[in-house]
Each structure stands twice: as structure tokens, then as C-alpha cells.
């Protein structure tokens, strides 16, 4: 059999895996929307709307503000979106770092203008008032009375009592017209259940440690100071903080003045109705103060709404910042996975989204505790869980560590004028203050929803086929060396992963500024930083502090899921672990090594057979090993490409990793190479009788394997 067939086999796999440019956006609603034919919108009932809490129907005239109906891409759009995100992160791709605007995202992955208008008109026909339309045509926000919501979505709105507070919620899953079945992604806002932020309430006294973290302490310990000396302080960058409360500029002013930081007025964006001062007000102060403590020259953007999801949606749709921080963790079983599209849109627009991994150890469905209190000891029974949005592959999950000074000398006996006293990096263990105060430990574990991203690989990464959390960690203990925060109570010590997360958001701003000043980026915007973090963990020796001691275990009821000897959780170990991820970071080394070339590798491409009959398949194996003299572990993906010296043959390429299936679609009907049905390719490259006529055209083709490691 001529070798051209082997070469063509690879060409087929590339054709099938790389969708070409999408055709003009097609409408998916066929004909008028018939309200009498309905489809259930699965996942639209809150888990907290349980019968034992039901107080009966709500007032029909009760106004329900800012309800959001989200739209999902078609399967073809979703496939192309995932391919685009991979190309935007691939240094060898023409799409590398070519970010989209919200409008461009909508043209490729949103509804057609006709479909979007049809949805808006349908909502209006039920007397619902449109509050916000999406620039990307992938959601619409509206308000109305209980009566109108019930009629539109054919559900009853009831009153519920939970934790001594009264709430409202739909009492059954909602329905939408059958014509919208394939477009509607989810709905939120038909209930007002909420959950406290992951950050502990900072109304406590100084903990067990004798030192507290001032901004310059953090800069010394994590090696940020050399960047400040170079003029890298976040200037020109926009760091977005998501919140669900009004904030007080006076707290930020006092914090910055106390530690010698230049004044910074927070740019505020309200999304929807004003939530007023809520239990998340202290969280807002913590996040804004510490993101600005790291990225001291950055513009701080506070995007707030009645819920964190509404704030995130507004921040992304309006493209308000290149870095977003969310200090919230809602456990996966209680969250809507459909909101992942927000994270994918953020990445496609060049936004880096970071989030706290949670403060309840490996039991994220259980509420965290509080520092320096007693009587909160908790035994969990629901089993292991991780939180959203941290578990989204497009979000960087930030866990927690605790300094472990031991007998070392890491603090001066007196403070500098800026309040600092740290001398150098301090060894770290997993943050776990769980005890009388309740669950207080670094969130971590395995997602139940999201498959393992190709980039999440390396020593210590579990072979579990699912997304693992966290990715990285920083100091988070509120009992030992806590963060200093200023809020309505005054100066207080604080901690939790919602202290480590906004700190890393500040780091990403420094990274953006450095890469722009070095000419690596034409403008700020890194999108998903996780692939490079995992690559550097395998190819660099001085970027990460590997945390190998401690655990995020919490007490559990005997016989409950994941409970072993009364404990649920994970221990730290060499390399990646489910308590601290890749570990903490030497910021100077991270920033200056970010764009270094990938480690050299050598590649051997081996076919399973050199003689292939029609109808048979061949498996190509690419063995990637470090180049001679290198100790780095290869990371990244293998790319198969075809090349040709004839004009009628095109070159296609895409990632082919982990034995993923690839399907050959319609292409080049004029030549009739594939006909109408295409060829399915799974773990190999299948041949079809229709390809015989193509062999002559492909005689001179070549195939190559390249590694982006």
C-alpha cells in the first residue's frame, strides 16, 4: 500500500478535529414560538426549595427583579469554541492571544439576531420588562411580578423559611416553549437563596500568631519586591473584583494610607438592583485592599450585584477588566454547571478569572467556620466536594497555605515604617485551622462534572480523568500570620482562600504589565493562565514552592462518603496535590520566566503498521522525551499536521491528545473526497473506499508531529 494513504489518514484526522470558520450564523428557532408546547428546563429548581421549608404561595404582586435566562451554543458552536480556546493558548497557532470582543463572541457563539429577538419578544409577551440585553447575545435579564413569572415559566413561586430567614423560590422546575428547548441554557433569579462568601467574617481578634501580614510582608515572602524595583506595580492594568454588596471607599483609603500605598479610587459598576450593605461588605474590603496591595498601581474595578453570578456576567459582557477575582465557592452539587460558558467567554476575550477554592477543606458543601471562636466544631457527612467557579477548567483555583516558621528566624523584632517585618520566604504547610471554630482549611479535591484538561498534567496530578482543584495556593490562615484588613470594625486580622485569591489576581496584573513592557504582549490579556502554570511547574525549578506537609482533612461521620478513620480530605506530597495544587509561587521568577521557550524535546512517530488495507485502521504513536541533557518532564500537546506542495491540498492541524476521538466532517464536496457522511476516526485513522481516488492527489504529502511542550 502506498505511503500516501498513511499521510492522508493523518490529513483526515486533522480535517475532522478542526472546524473551519463557521458559516453565517443560522437561526435555530423554526417558526413562531408556541406557548402551548413546553419543555422542562432541567436544573432550574434550587436544592434549598424543599417541602419542609415551604410556607405556601408568594404574593402574586411581589416584584421579582433581575431574572436571567441564559442561552447555550449549538453543539457545532460549542465544539468550535473549545477549539478556539485551545488555539488561543497555543503559541504556534495564528489565533494565539487573538482575543474577541463580546460582540465578536456573540457573532460566533451567541444566538442569531433573529433568534435573540424572538426570545426577547416572547418574554415581553408575558409582560416581563427587559432589564439588560447581552452584547454577545447569550443571555437576557428581565423583571416582573410573581404572577407574570409563573405564567411565563409555568411554575408556582412559594415562600420558604430557612435559617430563620424568609425567602422566595419557584417550587418546581420551570418550563419554556419547546421551540426554545435547544437554546435555553438555564435560569437564575427566580429565588433569593444565597450563601455566605467563602471568606470568614473578619470580626475577631488577633489569632495565635504573633505577626500579621502587611503588604510589604507579602511582597518579601513571595518575592514581589524585585518587580516593584523594576517599575512593575500593575500600572495600566484593570483588576476586577466581583461582589454582592455596596463597598466603602473610606476603608480602602485608610488601608492604603496606613501602609504607604498611593491613593486609589475604586471604579464601581452596579449590575442590576443595588444590593445595599450585605454580609459580603467585609469581603469587598478584603478583596479590594489585597488585590491593590499586590498590584499597587492597577485600576481597581468593583463589579457588584445581588449575586456573584450576576456580577460576573456583567463584568464579562461589558469587558470591564483583564483580571477578575471571585472570592466565593459554591459546591458543585448545588451549582449550575451551565455557567461555565461565562468562564469560556471570559477566556476567549482574554480575561483571566481567579477564584478561591473554598474554606471547608475537601467538604465544600459544608459551611466554613470562623477564626477565634468556639462551639462551631462540625462533622461532615455529605462527602467530598469542590466548588464552582474554582472547578471550571477556565478558572484558576487558589487554595491556602500556612507559614511554618519552626525554629527559623523569618521576622524582624520591629516593624518598618510600612508596617512590614518579614525577612524572607517562610516555609509553608497546608492551611488547616479546623477545630472549635468549624471547618477552616484549604478547599481541594476532584470535580464531579468537568473532565481533566489536557494541560493539567505532571508529577502528583491524580490519574482520575477529572478536573482537580486547587491549581496554586498562598497563605490563608487567619489564626497564624493573618492578613491585615480594614473594614467597618476597624483594623482586623483575616484569612481564608478569599485572601489568597485576590492576592493572586494582583499577581496576574503584574504579569500582564511586565509582558506588555517586554513587548511580549501588544496589550494586556492572558486568558486562561492554567496551561502555562502547569508547564512551568514541569520545566522550571525555582518558580514554585512545593508544599509537602499538612492536609486539608476535616472530621466526618463514620460510613459517610469518602470518610476514612473519621477524616475526609487529602494530604500534601511532592509535586501536585489536592490540598495546595502546585504550591505557592516565587512571583519574580514566575513573571520573568513566563514567556521562556518550552523545553526542547525529541519525538519519535511510530505507526502500528506500515501496510494498510482498505477499510483498516492505523494507530500513530508519538513518543515525546526530553532532549539530551534536559531533566524537564515534557508537557503540553502533540500536534499532527500535513503539508503539500500542490495548491489544491490544504493543511490542517489540531490537538490530538489522550487518544481523543476525532470525526471527519464534510469538506471539499466539489472534489467529492468525503461525500455526505464523512468518516469516524477513533484511536486511529480509518480508510474508506471513497478515498481511493484521492491517493493520486496526495502522493507527495508529508506528515509531521510537533510538541508544544
List the keywords.
single chain; 709 residues; alpha+beta; eight-stranded mixed sheet; four-stranded antiparallel sheet; 14 helices; 36 strands; disordered N terminus
Care to describe what's here?
The structure is a single chain. This protein is 21% helix and 23% strand. With 709 residues, it is an alpha+beta fold. Helix 8 (249-258) packs parallel to helix 9, helix 9 (281-294) packs parallel to helix 12 and helix 12 (497-517) packs parallel to helix 14 (587-593).
Brief summary:
The protein has 709 residues and is of the alpha+beta class.
**Share in helix:** 10-25%
What's the helix count?
14
Question: How many beta-strand segments?
Answer: 36
How does the major sheet shape up?
Answer: 8 strands, mixed
Alpha-carbon distance between the termini? Answer: 34 Å
Rg over CA atoms, rounded to whole Å, is: 27 Å
State the secondary-structure class: alpha+beta
Mean of pLDDT: 84
Q: Which quaternary structure do these chains form? A: single chain
Strand content: 15-25%
The stretches of 5 or more residues where confidence is low (pLDDT under 50) are: 1-22, 195-209, 641-709
What form results from the Cα inertia axes?
globular
What's the topology here?
Layout: H1 4-17, E1 38-40, E2 54-57, E3 63-71, H2 75-88, H3 102-109, H4 113-125, E4 129-133, E5 139-145, H5 146-153, E6 157-162, E7 165-170, E8 175-177, E9 184-188, H6 215-221, H7 225-229, E10 238-243, H8 249-258, E11 267-271, H9 281-294, E12 299-305, H10 308-317, E13 323-326, E14 330-331, H11 340-348, E15 352-356, E16 387-388, E17 395-403, E18 428-430, E19 445-451, E20 466-469, E21 472-475, E22 483-487, E23 490-494, H12 497-517, H13 530-539, E24 544-545, E25 554-555, E26 567-568, E27 584-585, H14 587-593, E28 601-607, E29 617-618, E30 620-626, E31 638-643, E32 653-655, E33 662-663, E34 680-681, E35 685-686, E36 702-707
Parallel strand pairs: 10-12, 10-13, 11-12, 13-15, 15-17, 17-21
Antiparallel strand pairs: 1-8, 2-6, 3-5, 3-9, 4-5, 6-7, 14-16, 17-18, 19-20, 22-23, 24-27, 25-26, 28-30, 29-35, 31-32, 31-36, 33-34
Helix pairs in contact: 8-9, 9-12, 12-14
Amino acid at each position: 500500500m502506498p505511503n500516501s494513504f498513511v499521510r492522508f489518514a493523518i490529513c483526515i484526522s486533522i480535517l475532522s478535529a478542526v472546524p473551519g470558520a463557521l458559516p453565517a450564523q443560522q437561526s435555530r428557532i423554526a417558526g413562531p414560538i408556541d406557548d402551548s408546547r413546553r419543555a422542562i428546563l432541567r436544573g432550574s429548581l434550587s436544592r434549598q426549595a424543599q417541602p419542609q421549608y415551604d410556607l405556601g404561595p408568594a404574593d402574586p404582586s411581589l416584584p421579582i427583579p433581575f431574572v436571567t435566562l441564559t442561552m447555550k451554543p449549538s453543539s457545532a458552536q460549542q465544539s468550535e469554541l473549545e477549539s478556539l480556546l485551545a488555539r488561543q493558548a497555543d503559541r504556534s497557532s495564528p489565533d494565539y492571544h487573538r482575543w474577541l470582543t463580546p460582540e465578536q463572541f456573540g457573532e460566533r457563539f451567541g444566538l442569531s439576531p433573529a433568534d435573540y429577538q424572538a426570545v426577547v419578544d416572547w418574554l415581553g409577551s408575558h409582560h416581563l420588562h427587559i432589564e439588560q440585553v447581552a452584547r454577545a447575545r447569550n443571555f437576557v435579564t428581565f423583571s416582573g411580578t410573581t404572577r407574570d413569572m409563573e405564567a411565563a415559566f409555568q411554575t408556582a413561586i412559594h415562600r420558604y423559611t430557612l435559617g430563620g430567614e424568609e425567602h422566595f423560590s419557584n417550587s418546581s422546575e420551570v418550563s419554556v416553549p419547546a421551540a426554545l428547548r435547544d437554546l435555553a441554557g438555564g435560569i437564575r433569579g427566580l429565588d433569593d437563596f444565597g450563601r455566605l462568601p467563602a471568606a470568614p467574617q473578619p470580626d475577631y481578634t488577633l489569632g495565635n500568631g504573633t505577626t500579621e501580614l502587611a503588604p510589604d510582608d507579602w511582597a518579601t515572602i513571595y518575592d514581589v519586591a524585585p518587580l516593584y524595583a523594576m517599575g512593575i506595580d500593575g500600572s495600566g492594568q484593570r483588576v476586577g473584583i466581583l461582589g454582592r454588596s455596596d463597598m466603602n471607599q473610606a476603608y480602602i483609603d485608610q488601608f492604603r494610607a496606613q501602609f504607604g500605598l498611593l491613593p486609589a479610587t475604586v471604579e464601581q459598576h452596579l449590575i442590576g438592583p443595588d444590593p445595599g450593605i450585605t454580609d459580603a461588605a467585609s469581603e469587598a474590603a478584603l478583596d479590594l485592599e489585597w488585590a491593590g496591595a499586590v498590584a499597587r498601581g492597577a485600576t481597581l474595578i468593583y463589579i457588584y450585584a445581588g449575586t456573584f453570578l450576576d456580577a460576573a456576567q456583567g463584568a464579562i459582557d461589558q469587558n470591564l477588566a483583564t483580571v477578575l477575582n471571585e472570592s466565593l465557592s459554591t459546591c458543585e452539587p448545588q451549582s449550575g454547571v451551565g455557567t461555565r460558558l461565562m468562564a469560556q467567554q471570559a477566556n476567549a476575550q482574554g480575561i483571566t478569572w481567579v477564584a478561591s477554592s473554598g474554606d471547608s477543606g475537601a467538604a465544600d458543601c459544608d459551611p466554613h467556620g470562623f477564626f477565634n471562636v468556639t462551639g462551631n466544631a462540625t462533622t461532615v457527612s455529605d462527602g467530598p466536594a469542590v466548588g464552582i467557579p474554582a472547578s471550571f477548567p477556565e478558572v484558576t483555583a487558589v487554595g491556602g497555605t500556612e507559614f511554618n516558621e519552626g525554629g527559623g528566624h523569618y521576622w524582624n523584632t520591629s516593624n518598618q515604617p510600612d508596617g512590614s517585618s518579614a525577612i524572607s520566604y517562610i516555609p509553608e504547610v497546608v492551611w488547616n485551622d479546623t477545630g472549635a471554630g468549624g471547618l477552616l482549611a484549604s478547599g481541594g479535591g476532584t470535580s464531579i462534572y468537568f473532565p481533566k484538561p489536557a494541560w493539567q498534567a505532571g508529577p502528583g496530578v491524580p490519574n482520575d480523568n477529572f478536573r482537580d482543584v486547587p491549581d496554586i495556593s498562598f497563605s490563608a490562615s487567619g489564626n497564624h500570620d493573618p492578613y491585615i484588613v480594614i473594614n467597618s470594625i476597624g483594623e482586623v486580622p483575616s484569612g481564608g482562600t478569599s485572601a489568597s485569591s485576590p492576592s493572586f489576581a494582583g499577581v496576574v496584573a503584574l504579569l500582564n504589565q511586565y509582558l506588555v513592557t517586554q513587548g511580549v504582549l501588544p496589550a494586556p490579556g492572558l486568558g486562561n493562565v492554567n496551561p502555562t502554570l502547569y508547564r512551568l511547574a514541569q520545566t522550571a525549578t525555582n518558580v514554585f514552592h512545593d508544599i509537602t506537609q499538612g492536609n486539608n482533612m476535616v472530621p466526618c461521620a463514620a460510613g459517610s462518603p469518602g470518610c476514612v478513620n473519621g477524616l475526609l480530605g487529602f494530604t500534601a506530597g511532592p509535586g501536585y496535590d489536592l490540598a495546595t495544587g502546585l504550591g505557592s509561587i516565587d512571583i519574580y521568577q514566575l513573571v520573568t520566566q513566563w514567556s521562556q521557550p518550552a523545553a526542547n524535546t525529541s519525538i519519535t512517530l511510530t505507526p502500528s503498521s506500515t501496510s494498510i488495507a482498505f477499510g483498516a485502521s492505523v494507530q500513530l504513536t508519538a513518543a515525546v522525551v526530553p532532549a539530551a541533557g534536559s531533566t524537564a518532564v515534557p508537557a503540553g500537546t502533540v500536534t499532527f499536521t500535513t503539508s503539500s506542495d500542490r495548491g489544491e491540498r490544504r493543511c490542517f492541524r489540531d490537538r490530538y491528545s489522550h487518544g481523543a476521538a476525532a470525526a471527519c466532517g464534510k469538506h471539499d464536496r466539489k472534489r467529492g473526497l468525503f461525500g455526505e457522511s464523512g468518516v469516524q476516526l477513533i484511536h486511529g485513522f480509518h480508510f474508506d473506499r471513497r478515498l481511493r481516488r484521492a491517493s493520486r492527489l496526495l502522493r507527495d504529502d508529508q506528515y509531521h508531529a510537533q510538541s508544544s511542550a
